[in-house]
Design goal:
The protein is α+β, with helices and mostly antiparallel strands and 136 residues long. Helix 1 crosses helix 3. This is DUF2591 domain-containing protein. Pfam families: Phage_P22_NinX.
Amino acid sequence: MTDLIEVKIADLAGEALGWAVGKAEGLELDLEAPIYGNGWRVFVTYRGEVIEHTNRFNPWEDWALGGALIEKYAAMVRGFPNQMYETLAIARVRIDGALAWRSGQTPLIALCRAIVATKLGDTVQVPKELLSPAER
């Protein structure tokens, strides 16, 4: 990983969104270089007293990870159509008194954006490898 690039929360998607959520959650993150046709991917390392393991970190698409975040923050998540949009999902998260509403193409994307916005603000630094050349 070389450079970090500032990105608006509303523009975060895919691996960059996963990176931002992991940072907001205080996780130990690593990037895995492209292999077998995949692009750069985000992994998290969990350390216990006896063992250490590394897992893929993709809460924007994995309900096992995203669902745990919904529970953790008692988030409100709505698919579409909803009271605000016909074609976008929305999520509301309140953390330590800070409140954020965000939208996304899926409920999990909206949730992840809301968590990052609540904890880190309207912009976040992500590794340039996780962005498309057009986004850099």
